[in-house]
Amino acid sequence: MNKVLLFFKEHPASSWVLGFQLFRFILLPFMGLMPQDAYYYFYGENLSLSYFDHPGMIGYQLRLFTDIFGKSVFVIKFSDFVITSLTIYSFYKLATKFISKERANTATLLLVSTLFISILTFNSTPDVPLILFWTLSILFLYKAIFENKKWFWLLGGITMGLAFDSKYTALLLQIGLLAFLGFSNKYRKLLRSPWLWVCLLISLAVTFPIWYWNYQHDFASFAFQSTKRTGSISKLNLNFNFFFGAIGHQLFLLLPILFSVFTFFTYKYVKRAITKFKLPSSKVLFLLAFFIPTFVGFFSLTPIYWVKLNWMMPSYITGVILASFFISKKLIKWQIGFSIFIHVLLALQVIFYIVPIKSDDTWVGWKELAKETKELQKTYPNTFIFSDDNYKTSACLNFYLDEKVYAQNIIGKHALHFDYLGDNLKTLNGKNAIFIDSDKRFKNHNKKGDILPELKFHFSQITELEPIIVSINDKEVRKFWVYYCKNYNATP
Hints:
- The chain crosses the membrane at residues 13-33, 73-92, 104-122, 195-213, 242-265, 285-305, 311-327, 334-355.
- It is a multi-pass membrane protein.
- The chain has helices spanning 2-10, 12-27, 35-45, 57-69, 73-95, 101-112, 115-122, 127-146, 151-164, 171-183, 194-206, 208-216, 220-234, 240-254, 256-275, 282-289, 292-299, 315-323, 329-352, 366-379, 392-400, 453-458, and strands at 383-387, 405-406, 432-438, 459-472, 475-488.
- By secondary structure, the chain is α/β, with parallel strands linked by helices.
């Protein structure tokens, strides 16, 4: 016991890191199912080489943990906690390559203090495995380049491929690697090294399942992730609400102190490169190579395109190490103090649900909805269930109910990976259904009063039933419109 107390006394930063992670672990049982948790669990239920809207790594992760520990919301959250904890440890090992162990502990504390880490811990998204493999890739590439350990080129290739198997934005790893070698006078010669090109070929080989799945499905996933977005960007329509929205997201994820330090050193290094044509030392250039393309690159799009809050997350890994060069002890204390305050508020919200969230992106109400829907099926037996909100309601009901739940492909709309399950919807012809529609702005108990036109095309008769009202802690927090639909026709 005395040795433990002595360790905490001699290593205050490590103690705070462990404290933050213990806090998150204690909060796990209070977290309800998020729609993203349910949707990527649905990935794992329907194993595939890849999926329509993302690669499959998060689905494989959830399938592995639920196969080992059983299906539950806690196990899903626990899997994210474990993977994110591995990311934190990998980050610490990476940081020690650039700064002393003491400062690496401080850098790790800066990382752990962010809401970025809390989001990865509490919500299953492709970013959870992406950030782990991103961090490992940079660590292995460092060992290959700066320590001249050839076999780490192979490990770097594997982890870069696994990062791409997590999310397509991992392509920026290869871009960062080549950018560093191209700009580095000292290491440019490695562009001719066979080890580099073997590394890149291995990274490509590891991503083969994604390419093969896309080949089988007319490159649907690549088209979904690229064509629509590049079309929007090419219009060059200025909208500064996007820009200020991106700043708000980054202030939220990093907290104001750390975001301000990010802004400071980005300006410092970019200005020096542009005005003085002077590049930093090799190690700093290496860190910037995996920061600038992601952080500055996506930020440069914000005046013309809505950049999602998680797109810049990979840049935080090397960004926090760079920030540790500049941040003072006083600012670190402010960062930690503000972080503790925000996390206490987060805990109160999770446990007591003080502020209602006017969105389907919430952890409350899904289990209660499933229970009410099951009761409803007793009144209207032999019905199938479907919803129309891309994936959220359908995925959550699919998680809790012991039957197949359908999405908006039932009424002829595109439904993300629900379209790629091989379902023959004609087998449902003539059956009755229950249609669930979330009222995101829940204001009263009234029925909706109108019917989706697509429902009328596919069912001979639609009757709106009394809405389902969900209460949490004796407070009404969610509302779902309900329709009983007769005589389905898949091809009207």
